[in-house]
Amino acid sequence: MGQYLNPGNEAFLQAVTDDIYVDKTQMIALMNQRLNRSRVKYVCVSRPRRFGKSMAADMLAAYYSKGCDSGELFAGRKVEKEESFHLHLNQHNVIRLDIQRFLFDESHLDIFINKIQEAVLRELKAEYGSYFTVDQYGLPGALGQIFAHTKKGFIFIIDEWDCVFRFAKEQYEIQKVYLDFLRGLFKGAEYVELAYMTGILPIKKYGEHSAINIFKEFSMLNPGPLAQYFGFTKAEVEGLCERYGVDYGKTEEWYDGYLIGKFHIYNPQAVTELMESGVFRSYWTGTETYEALKIYIDMNFDGLKESVVGMLGNVHCKIDPSTCQNDMTTLKSKDDVLTLLLHLGYLSFDEKNSQVFIPNQEIAGEFIRSVKTGGWDGLIQALERSNQLLQDTWKLDEKAVAKGIAAIHNETASMLKYNNENSLTCTILMAYYSAKAYYINPILELPSGKGFADVVYLPKREIDKPALVVGLKWNQSAKGAIAQMKDRQYTDWLEGYTGKILLIGICYDKKKGHTCVIEEYKKDAIT
Question: Which residues, 6 or more positions from 164, have their beta carbon under 8 angstroms from its beta carbon?
């Protein structure tokens, strides 16, 4: 048993004996299906920090490694029922690496690859010293010689594989040297039975192709069959809430929202902290990537701030993630920034519609903290006005709503393009920010009847509030917006949702300013 070659199972032992442990061992069966299959034996899993990546790596090492006996650790676990379980239990040579342990200081950038090779070669020498000599090919050369003598391969488990790109963000030559090292270690190597890597970022791209494009990636964008194994699922969180006497509804509001494949996934750290403390708050602050949020949302890409404002208002934002280079510096567009924030865990992804959104109250709080200073003039004041404006809307106080909208529009004039329809839509989303407590996510340009409404808020179940249908007009008439709603039968689509609807016409005219007309539209709900 070594530190890197055929390690023990102490890390996984600690995980399974913690007060809160959620069984993810069925993932092992999926990895068993990939063993020694050339087209699928290279796996890279990327998830945000604190999503259970290291625990999964520890689990795989404990299961495969010849350096320990883990039968008792897996007794009664879900994977024990799988046909392949006993066939591979502690039957493989494992090389387990945590790249961050070799790269925790800037002075290590020039030597960390050599140190990795030296550490593994030292343990290989103790086990297979007569089978190889170290030559110019380093670790890959030694492993090739060992395989030629023994015909037995190795399983590679590499955690924090991407820390080079986070630590040496702008040192591209070091990044390329590191990728070349990984490519030399894995590509075409007969000694590889399985290569499993985890990190926050997907594999870095150079040009159109990755330097190690042999890996199948399971990311926030494409989680595949591994979706449920990183983070806690809804059923798992419901079970924990019942066990610890925590309100699941409030837990859902605070921490649900990561849509990964077909699963709603919770950040394990947040849920675990909640169960242990019983306190609902953000547990995200303090993670390595926190400072990145303000840096990236302050970037001056066209449409980025409007997208952030929209997402704070609970709308989803269409993105094209294909141009992102999967590093933290090569950012050339709004889409690149939003894709990076998705990988860092600040956004969730609706794969069906290729849209990103802020997942939950915890992360929304991080966005609010990040926009309190610099470049977001007036946004916090606008959001603080939101609750009063919502109350005025319910009271049908047209003058107060118009005044509130005007104040919010003026407060955000330096942040958004003042005189266009998109700016007015962003203003509405900020104005009704507090509606998230009572309404589901707003719908933009909802197809209804013969035309389109601009913003629609539908009340949550068991919330006794009217639906809000907001028609926006630019240099026209607020009364005309109301008339258009009736003429185009906007309200027909809403009949099955509520018996009470407020039609809200809002207009901005360069000369007259903001005007508002609110009309109660009653119709019995369809039963």
Answer: 99, 103, 174, 175, 178
CA-nearest of 333, 468, 478, 488 to 402 is 478
Radius of gyration for the alpha carbons in the chain, expressed in angstroms and rounded = 27
User: Which residue do the tokens 């997907």 mark?
Assistant: 202
Phi, psi (5° rounding) for residue 146? -60, -45
CA atoms within 13 A on the CB side of 64: 28
**Rounded distance between C-alpha atoms, residue 356 and residue 365, angstroms:** 17
Q: Contact 344/289 with Cβ under 8 angstroms? A: yes
Rounded CA-CA distance 23/12 in Å is 12
Look-up of token digits 């060992």: 146
In the block, tokens 């979706």 appear at: 227
Task: Give the separation between CA 77 and CA 87, rounded to whole angstroms.
Answer: 16
pLDDT tens digit string along 59-78? 999 999 999 999 999 999 99
What is the rounded distance in angstroms from the CA atom of residue 429 to the CA atom of residue 386? 9
Cα(223)–Cα(47) distance, rounded to whole angstroms? 9
Contacts 24+ apart (CB under 8 A), 437-441: 438/390, 438/463, 438/465, 439/463, 439/465, 439/468, 441/314, 441/315, 441/316, 441/357
What confidence score (pLDDT) does residue 146 get? 97
Task: Find, among 41, 93, 38, the residue nearest to 64 by Cα.
Answer: 93
Average pLDDT, the chain: 87
Pairing state between β 317-318 and 355-357: antiparallel
Q: Which residues of the chain have pLDDT under 50?
A: 288, 290, 418-419, 449-451, 525-527
The beta strand positions in 326-442, using DSSP E, are 348-350, 355-357
* Helix (H) or strand (E) run with residue 399 in it: helix 398-411
List strands edge to edge, sheet with 467-474. Answer: 443-448, 451-457, 467-474, 500-509, 513-522
The tens digit of pLDDT for each residue in 138-176 reads 999 999 999 999 999 999 999 999 999 888 888 888 988
Residues whose CB falls within 8 Å of the CB of residue 149, separated by 6 or more in sequence, listed in order: 128, 131, 132
Q: What b/e readout covers 78-115, taking b as 16+ CB neighbours within 10 angstroms?
A: ebeebeebeebbbebbbbbbbbbbbbeeeeebeebbee
Alpha-carbon distance 117 to 114, whole Å? 5
Q: pTM to 2 decimals?
A: 0.87
d(CA 313, CA 89): 50
What is the enclosing helix (H) or strand (E) of 472?
strand 467-474
Closest CA to 63 of 37, 97, 27: 27
